[in-house]
Amino acid sequence: MKRIDRIYQRLKNKCEELTKKQLLEKEGFSAKELSDDLNILRNNVSMELNNLVRSGQVIKIKQRPVLYIPRDTVRNNFGTIVDQTILDIPSLKERYLAKKPADIEKNKDPFSLLIGSDGSLKKITGQAKAAVVYPPRGLHTLILGPTGSGKTLFAHMMHSYAKYMKRMDEDSPFVVFNCADYYNNPQLLISQIFGHVKGAFTGAETDKQGLVEKADGGILFLDEVHRLPPEGQEMIFYFMDTGHFNRLGETDKRRQAHVLIISATTEDPSSSFLNTFLRRIPITITMPSFHERQAKEKVDLTKYLLSKEARRIHKEIKVDENVIKALIGSVTFGNVGQLKSNIQFVCAQGFLDSMDKPFVDLHLKMLPQEMKEGFSLISRNVKENELISNVVGQTTVITGEGSKDLVEDDVYELPFDMYKIIEDKANLLKQENVDPAEINRFVATDIKIHIKSFYQQISKSPNRKLAKLVDKRVMNLAEELRSLAESMLNRTFNDKFLYFISLHLDGLLKRKNRPAAGMPSPHDRLIDEQADEYLVATKMKEVIEDKFNLTLPKIEIMYLAILLDSAKELNNKGKVGIVVATHGDSTASSMVSVTCELLGDYNVKAVDMPLDVSFHVILNEIVAAVKTVDHGEGVLMLVDMGSLYYSEDKIQERSGIPIKSIDQVSTPMVLDAVRKANFLDMDLPGIYDSLKNPERTEEDEVISHSERMQGKKKAILTICSSGQGTARKIEELIRSYLNDLTDEPIKVIPLSILNLNQQAQELRKKYHIIASIGVKKPNIAAPFISLEHFIEGEGQSIMEKALQGQKVTGQKDSNKIVRSLCEDSLKKMLTYLNPWRAIPTLLHFCHQLERVWSVHLKNTATLRIVVHTAFALERAISGDVLHYSGPVSDEKREWLKKVRKASEVIDKELKIHLSDEELYYLVDLLQDEFSMALQNTNDQTK
């Protein structure tokens, strides 16, 4: 290791051994301290530290003696309080206190400060509060949500709420760790979390405290937690279970810490985590995207972000109503983070235009084209346009008052004073007598580059992620191979393929000519050698060998071919898109709005056709809408009348997407189409035929198909990515369900999505396939139940129709699937209670609750209530009863009476009595669960 690297690493290690409070007091370390530690001449240490300052890795604190601190340490502990361009500061503590957000009011619920806490965030706020106050030290939580949706802010609010409720001390730590930073070095990643002892690995020159120890008594927030390697997940879930851990390289000592772990990810947890890890996280919170927020919340978020800019500018901002609509409409992928970026750019432009005025004026004409398109998008959405207009005046005056920061380390906060840069550059150019219009153009371009560059640094784009994982030449070759495959196969490969191929290439480099563990033998004919994918894989192997100077075994061709084929399957996965196009100003929008309210958001788009707009313009909008909703399964067009019905071929030609059109559209038809596309996963021809022939019912289809398949043994397919794991679990649940319903032998066959259609067609020759269940619909004439609808219990009616005509010997048990899920969850967790004896009573208890409140609970809600009550019964048996510390309102007392009445079945059947304090915790859970169930019931009644 070079001298400069040794010095930097020692400085970083010494800083990481300090708490946040200790860092503020200490501020950094002197050259002499490092010199004594490393036994290097002080002058040499000082020289290298100044080199690190010039390179931007270290910040100099100009005190006596001069102190040094790594820039990453400052950012990780205190946020972006030091501009990247600043190399030295007088005092870290003074700078932090100057930029520190105002303390959240001690006697005010921190969540009440969140925009949407009484709206779109109400349910997840309830979940978060329950997780924080759950005895004895809260429940570990996983926060899901797209980039920029506010996961980190929400975790901060959970910490503030824990302090507000006195569940954590005022000085309890909130430690943030981004698992992506060390993804390509699992050993170092685990060392960061748990610490290490001297000599644990090369470069471990001293003992080091891990983040778990630093977070003792508080919260450890693991961002991008899907980057944890399996061994890291195992260590984390052992710590969750026991509270004990060892530092890396330590075998004798057993350390202990009390830490609430909050994790966040943008990925699908079922495909990114070990099941054992997920089972340890009882609370999962899903953050809504910006587009899922209520219209008023979108406006309030926009005003709040504008007020933060007004505070920085020290001027009022006068903003036109149409600018607010444009800002809201231009958010496409980055959620609140993207909104903030757009607002910063617009305010920068407005500040430049208004430097000689007492206020900043924002109007539609000054916006770039992409934001003007956002305004057009909102204008075409009649309902949202009206909702926004109702809460926004024609001109809104924004001040900097009340725009307090809620967190210190907002990653979307610009690390430089944008307005100071504008002012300085504009004044400099004025002194050179540059034309004002030219000044405006130059500075605006410069600021746009500044902002764009910053947001690219924190963006979650695939290339940005890959840059942390693999060597740059690997990433470049992966792009080259993707282009080669797209050219030879005439297909598009998404970013997921780029990940797969990059990580595989990175593995090839690391293991050179050693065969990959677990690879099939060269004799296994997984893909025909005449297949197009195999021929492309052969070419890819030649390119890899040439670039990396490697000799690859023949089996590598087979692996690459499988990768290409799997990517094809994944690309094909999607649902049929639907476009509703009608004449009039809002007819189509109204139909789609009603459909989304009743059936939830789906891939359906409305195109309104005002009578005074030319057909050519409308046709362009239709083509754009078709491209937007297509996910690889084609698009169904529902139109009212006229030329559009006869323009199917023209739209298909211009979009390059399979189209089917049906005229005389109505709201019931749109509802039926969405139901069949989303809930029944029917393909485009199937939906088209069923809507064109409404007299032919689904029962007719099933019976007709059954008649054609007489004489063949019946089978059900279960489908997941590998044919193992999930597919096997579904098989187990189905078998128990079928055993109670019919005595006819039905074979359950697990399949993977690889070559799914080919496998299904082969099985169809041998079996009468009555249904398929899982993650992807095979291309066969049989009902399909998606995995989520099967688990929720909504697929049971489809299963019953599939079984029509068979001899039913037993009474249908509608609780069979949820009973199996409960048994699976409880049999490994209970100590005193017999799950097989308790579960019937607990399900009876849930049924009583449904009767009392006149609601129907989905399986997932029933499962949560059963598990919660089972643990309450365990505590009652052991005498370790909880003491309820939350507020008790009159409404909550009324709920308690009803829960007590329903719990009589537990007293009677299990002879166990639950205290009022235990039941109050159950009331908190039920209020959250039943609010949604009651809403669903009301919607259905309407």
TrEMBL record:
Domain PTS EIIA type-4: residue ranges: 575-716
GO biological processes: phosphoenolpyruvate-dependent sugar phosphotransferase system; regulation of DNA-templated transcription
PROSITE patterns the UniProt entry points to: PRD_2 (PS51372), PTS_EIIA_TYPE_4 (PS51096), SIGMA54_INTERACT_2 (PS00676), SIGMA54_INTERACT_4 (PS50045)
Keywords from the named record: ATP-binding, Coiled coil, DNA-binding, Kinase, Nucleotide-binding, Transferase
Database matches in SMART domains: AAA
Pfam families: EIIA-man, PRD, Sigma54_activat
InterPro entries in the record: AAA+_ATPase, P-loop_NTPase, PRD, PRD_sf, PTS_EIIA_man-typ, PTS_EIIA_man-typ_sf, PTS_IIA_man, Sigma_54_int
CC per GO annotation: membrane
Residue ranges of domain PRD in the record: 469-574, 833-936
Coiled coil ranges: 1-51
Protein known as: Sigma 54-interacting transcriptional regulator
Organism (species): Sporolactobacillus sp. Y61
